[in-house]
From TrEMBL:
Keywords: Cell inner membrane, Cell membrane, Cell projection, Chemotaxis, Cilium, Flagellar rotation, Flagellum, Membrane, Transmembrane, Transmembrane helix. InterPro entries: FliL. Belongs to the FliL family. This is Flagellar protein FliL. GO terms for biological process: bacterial-type flagellum-dependent swarming motility; chemotaxis.
Length: 169
C-alpha cells in the first residue's frame, strides 16, 4: 500500500508540476506580449506626437510659420463656345479668373489678352462634353488652360486658372 500511496503522490506531483508549468508559460507569454504592446505604443506616440523642435514660448512667434504671399486675381471676359459633337449643339459657358503674383503681372498680361482668348477658344472648341465630366476632366482642363496661357504670355507667369462658372448646355 505504501507503494501505491507513493505512486499516487508522484502522479499528483506530476500533475501539479505540469499545471504550474502551464501557469509559468502563461505568465511568460503574457509578460512578453505586454512588453511588446508597450513598446509599439511608445513608438507610435513618439512618431505621431513627438517633435524635433522645442515648444515655442507664449511670447515667441513660431519660426516655421510661413506668411501667405498676397495674390491678385484677374477676371477674363465670359466665353461661350460650341463644343465638338456629332449632331446636337452643345455649348460651354465659362468664366475664368487668373491668379497672378502681383498687379505688375496683370500689366504684363493685358497686352496679350487677344492671344490668350484665341488660345482658349481654339482649345475649348476641340473638347467634347465627355471631356468635361467629373473632377478629373475639369482638372485636366484647368491644367491645359494654364499651360496654354503661360505659353502665350511668356516671360510673364500665371500661377493658376480658377473657374468662377462653368456650364455645359
Amino acid at each position: 500500500m505504501a507503494d501505491e500511496n507513493a505512486a499516487g503522490d508522484e502522479d499528483e506531483d506530476a500533475a501539479a508540476g505540469s499545471a504550474g508549468g502551464g501557469k509559468k508559460k502563461l505568465f511568460l507569454f503574457g509578460g512578453i506580449g505586454l512588453v511588446v504592446l508597450l513598446a509599439v505604443g511608445g513608438g507610435a506616440y513618439f512618431f505621431l506626437m513627438g517633435s524635433d523642435s522645442p515648444a515655442p514660448t507664449p511670447g515667441e512667434a513660431d519660426p516655421l510659420m510661413e506668411v501667405q504671399k498676397p495674390v491678385v486675381f484677374y477676371d477674363l471676359p465670359e466665353m461661350t463656345v460650341n463644343l465638338a459633337t456629332d449632331g446636337r449643339s452643345t455649348y460651354l459657358k465659362v468664366r475664368i479668373a487668373l491668379e497672378v503674383e502681383n498687379r505688375g503681372m496683370i500689366d504684363q498680361i493685358q497686352p496679350f489678352l487677344p492671344r490668350i482668348l484665341d488660345a482658349f477658344q481654339i482649345y475649348l472648341r476641340e473638347l467634347r462634353p465627355a471631356d468635361l465630366e467629373g473632377s478629373a476632366g475639369l482638372f485636366r482642363l484647368k491644367e491645359e488652360l494654364l499651360r496654354r496661357i503661360n505659353l502665350s504670355v511668356y516671360p510673364a507667369k500665371v500661377e493658376g486658372v480658377l473657374f468662377k462658372e462653368i456650364l455645359v448646355q
